[in-house]
Design a protein that fits this description.
Blueprint lengths: L5 E5 L3 H12 L3 E5 L15 E2 L7 H20 L6 E2 L3 E3 L3 H13 L5 E3 L1 H7 L12 E4 L3 E3 L1 H14 L3 E3 L6 E5 L2 E6 L5 E3 L2 E4 L5 H6 L11 E7 L9 E3 L4 E5 L3 E5 L8 E2 L5 E2 L2 H12 L10 E8 L9 E4 L6 E5 L3 H18 L17
Parallel strand pairs: 1-2, 1-13, 2-9, 5-15, 13-22
Antiparallel strand pairs: 3-8, 4-8, 5-7, 6-7, 10-11, 11-12, 14-17, 14-20, 15-16, 16-17, 18-19, 21-22
Helix pairs in contact: 1-5, 1-8, 2-8
Length: 368
């Protein structure tokens, strides 16, 4: 690996903007190129729950904890921000599932408590006790972030430091010369030269690297995020329940998602997605049923698209062996890993050294 002074970042989501900002902090000359607008892809429709809940590999758990740590540093700089909070998380499902999850979390030192429905109601008065059908896991160290607000915050720093953002560029393609990445071209033919390229294209990453003869399997499902009108009732925790996941959102609104309606989302050949409004109303009704007060909860907007998930479920970070100078950032946990991923990718690009925390997540693992 060689150090880079000029870098082009492709992707206007949290990983792309984070990488661009960290690179600029480190002194690189950076251009960020995005197909449409900032945060108009998966980052604009993510529940953005900051966590390392459940069971996962030790390496993935450590990376997620480092990600949460960077958010805590950002939170400490200004605890008054309404788009980044650490008020804990609550999860309930079947009793056996909840208890297994709790055991797994305790086993790797993740703060986890089993609560009865009555204890949940005390911890989170905004929840109707009757909605909690059994024991719940409480993770007091978890939080949430509104990624569009975070991206706006990082983009302001990036441009303030002299970075350049090119929106509406259309699909970008990596330029390869003498076997190495030397920049990107955009749909309108504009070329941006670079010593290194970062691909942070979300669910499109597999298709972009396929043009380079590289295979990174993709398992990105269709997904939806619903934002409600102001709810008139405060819920502080992130809730993960059998029929709806819910978190607070700036302006007194709520963000909602789940997976039970995935097969009811349709997608056209050009990637346009749609869903019957009755499904949106059903999801909102599930959320309203969780609340302790009789609230007329209504949807203000909803967004649909692919949720980025690599084929084996694990993150993909680092330089492509087949195309030196081309780096990839592709992960399901884009919110939790957003800040740390940008930091570690910047470290590798600027120093030429491989960071040990990224070793288990190299794109090379998919090579035959």
């Amino acid at each position: 690996m060689t150090t880079a002074k000029q870098v082009v970042v492709v992707g206007g989501g949290v990983i792309g903007v984070s990488a661009a900002t960290h690179l600029r902090r480190d002194g690189a000359d950076v251009v960020l190129v995005t197909e449409g607008e900032l945060a108009d892809g998966a980052s604009g429709r993510s529940l953005a729950w900051l966590n390392s809940a459940g069971s996962r590999s030790a390496a993935y758990h450590a990376l997620r904890l480092a990600g949460i740590d960077r958010y805590r540093t950002l939170f400490a700089a200004d605890p008054s921000r309404d788009w980044l909070r650490f008020d804990g998380g609550l999860h309930w499902a079947t009793e056996s599932t909840v208890e297994a999850r709790h055991r797994a979390e305790v086993a790797h030192g993740y703060e986890s408590h089993l609560l009865t429905p009555d204890e949940v109601a005390v911890r989170e008065p905004g929840i109707a006790a009757a909605a909690v059908t059994g024991p719940a896991v409480h993770n007091p160290g978890e939080g949430w972030v509104s990624l569009p607000h975070l991206i706006e915050h990082l983009a302001a720093e990036f441009t303030g430091r002299g970075g350049r953002i090119v929106t509406g560029a259309g699909r970008a393609h990596v330029v390869v010369e003498n076997g190495a990445a030397t920049g990107v071209t955009t749909k309108n033919g504009e070329r941006f030269a670079a010593d290194a390229v970062v691909l942070a294209c979300g669910a499109a990453t597999s298709a972009v690297v396929a043009e380079l003869g590289v295979s990174i399997p993709d398992a990105s499902p269709l997904a939806m995020l619903v934002l409600t009108e102001p709810a008139g009732q405060r819920v502080n925790s992130v809730l993960n329940t059998p029929r709806v996941a819910l978190r607070p959102n700036p302006g007194g609104t709520l963000a909602l998602d789940h997976s039970w309606y995935e097969d009811r989302i349709t997608e056209t050949a050009d990637g346009e997605c749609s869903i019957d409004e009755s499904v949106v109303k059903e999801l909102v009704a599930e959320a309203a049923a969780l609340l302790s007060e009789d609230v007329a909860l209504t949807a203000a907007s909803w967004k649909l698209g692919r949720k980025p998930i690599p084929g084996d479920g694990e993150p993909v970070f680092g330089e492509l062996t087949e195309v030196p100078g081309c780096f990839v950032g592709f992960t399901h946990s884009g919110a939790t890993l957003g800040l740390i991923a940008g930091e570690l990718l910047s470290y590798e690009i600027r120093t030429g050294a491989r960071h040990p925390m990224l070793e288990p997540f190299r794109p090379d693992r998919f090579r035959p």
